Amino acid sequence: MSDSSAARTCEGCDACCTVMAVRELPKAAGAPCSHLLGGSRGCGIWGEHPPSCQTFHCLWRHGEAPQQLFPPDCGFLLAAGERGRWPVAVQVVSLPGRRHAWNTPENRKVFSALAATWNGVVTITDSDGRASHAFAPSGRVYSRTLHPEVFPQGGAIVAVPRSDYAAA
Asked: In this structure, is residue 88 part of a structural domain?
């Protein structure tokens, strides 16, 4: 999955400043941050931005997602949860107005490969933080409609069966 051919910058992208919630500000998910400068100029409080922004891990920015998954182009961002915690959880969060951009055969292959490589789960998550789909390391794909038992509390939690993970 890694593409370390060149350092990637956030230039031209402010997806995380819109789709992610920032508890310290407070900023709701799906709403542009009040500190966003606009015109692709980035964060107005960069250097003093809150801890949840500082620890945010965009897979595209860190070269852990293919080049073609640049958030403004593909319509979603890939965000990793706590990296030292197992299982690794990756959220796919759509940009406003592009709710189904993730749902292509090519993207599904990428999500399945990420789940298998990291022995973790890739979830399709709405702006409220509720998962609708989960890509398991086994290659199985769960939807909340067909497998509500995997999505307790309406998708606020994802409980992929242990049998879907590789032995640790």
From this structure: yes
List pLDDT tens digits, range 133-147: 999 999 999 999 999
Residue range 27-35: average pLDDT?
Answer: 88
Q: Domain tally for the chain?
A: 1
- Residue 96 in any domain: the answer is yes
Cα Rg of the chain (Å, integer): 16
Task: Give the structural domain span for 158.
Answer: 56-164
Task: Tell whether 156 is covered by a domain.
Answer: yes
Rounded to whole angstroms, the Cα distance separating 117 from 144 reads 23
Q: For residue 60, what is the DSSP state?
A: T
* More confident call, 10 vs 141: 141
pLDDT at 1 over 70: no
In angstroms, the Cα distances linking 102 to 46, 61, 99, 122 are 29, 18, 8, 12
Residues paired with 161 in a beta bridge = none
Structural element, H or E, at residue 132: strand 131-135
Name the token pair of 81: 């949860």
Give domain status of residue 76, yes or no.
yes
Q: Are 139 and 150 in contact (CB under 8 A)?
A: no
- Dump pLDDT digits (tens) for 99-112: 899 999 999 999 99
